[in-house]
Amino acid sequence: MDKAQNLLDCIGNTPLLRLNKLSEQTGCEILGKAEFMNPGGSVKDRAALGMVRAAVASKQLKPGGTLVEGTAGNTGIGLALVGAAMGFKSVIVMPENQSRGKIDTLRAHGAEVRLIPPVPYKNPAHFVHTSGRIAAAMNEESPNSAFWPNQFENLDNRRFHETTTGPEIWAQTDGKVDGFVCAVGTGGTLGGVARALKARKPEVVIALADPGGSALHNYFANGELKLEGSSISEGIGNSRITANLADTPIDLSWQIPDSDAIPMIYRLIREEGLVLGGSSGINVVGAVRLAEQLGPGHTIVTILCDSATRYMERLFNAEFLASKGLELPEWFAPRR
Ligand code: PMP
After folding, report:
1. Contact (CB, 8 A) for 125 and 116
2. Beta partners for 207?
3. Which is the closest atom of ligand 1 to the Cα of 305?
4. Closest Cα to atom 8, ligand 1: which residue?
5. CA 281 to ligand 1 center in whole angstroms
6. Ligand 1 shell residues, CB under 6 Å
7. 143 CA to middle of ligand 1, Å?
């Protein structure tokens, strides 16, 4: 019998998908790692599994315990399903400006969702600090009852990508990968994949695709952590260098505007039948830029992080888009 023992066995080993039209356009092989096909619908299932498995192994997480995390949503969905499959409850602290789709999905996975106002990281009311305090209070009341994954600083996040996502990309391209590019939220994906690929092929080019509203491109290009612009993409961008991103070998970086990334989302729907979220648009535009930089004949890999179904009320809402200077494609049928 060929069966998965539980849902956790279905995390990872995602297909590497050729983006045909963009490959033809650039003369490169443009390949997307289909992370939206993970059971929780995003690349963050991997981080969740990596952090929870390590916490169980180190006995930080005890049977019957509760996972308490601050997240833009996708890590929470991953934690809720990994937790449920392993017998842990989840409390998810999230900024209230995130998409309804992610909040509803979290609740459907049985997580307790606590929505709080979005504030800058340096404010103690930021969702990351708030989740840490909730976990600490639970542990004070009942020792070892809560585990705070702390995904931004917990290197088990990056390590899981270094030992799964990176080696999968290496094997799926038969070692022919020339460049890898993606955006950064925690930096777990870029940090882990970059390390895995550089260890196997030092000349592989690693690039950062940064959205508006993030300080990271400026940091890598000019050495200054300076926020610029804004983006409707969610889960990516950062104002600080997290432990997961620190010392990542990054060769190139771009700030990708929504005016490039969002039309790319619509293009992928029409050209490839792929219905992806905003961060994937940033990543795929990054892949095209990397292909143009390296020239024809190269193999470029990026991450297809999650599905647009999580962001319906934004990505397919003409009024919302217009408020951001963006528009729906002509072929999109207006709602009646
Ligand atoms: N895309 C989406 C939709 C995400 O939710 C995240 C994580 N917040 C990322 C990309 C970035 O992944 P990482 O945290 O590994 O940098």
Report:
1. yes
2. 181, 252
3. 1
4. 235
5. 13
6. 42-44, 72, 74, 183-189, 234-236, 277, 279, 305-306
7. 31
pLDDT above 60 for 336: no
Residue 87 CA to residue 95 CA, distance in Å, equals 26
**What is the spatial distance between Cα 314 and Cα 316, in angstroms, rounded to a whole number?**
6
First to last CA, the chain: 49
Burial of 322 (C-beta count, 10 Å sphere; 0-12/13-18/19+): exposed
Residue 265 · residue 292 · CB < 8 Å: no
- Residue 335 tokens read as 């709602």
Alpha-carbon distance of 68 to 80, in angstroms, equals 10
Angle between helical axes of 278-294 and 258-272 (0-180°, round to 10): 90
Measured CA to CA, the distance from residue 280 to residue 276 in angstroms comes to: 6
Residues ≥6 apart with Cβ < 8 Å to 88: 52, 61, 64, 65, 66, 67, 82, 147
Residue-wise pLDDT tens digits, 134-179: 999 999 999 989 999 999 999 999 999 999 999 999 999 999 999 9
SS3 of residue 126 by DSSP: coil
* 244's tokens: 């997961």
Per-residue pLDDT band at 101 (split at 50, 70, 90) = confident
Residue 24 parent element (H or E):
helix 20-26
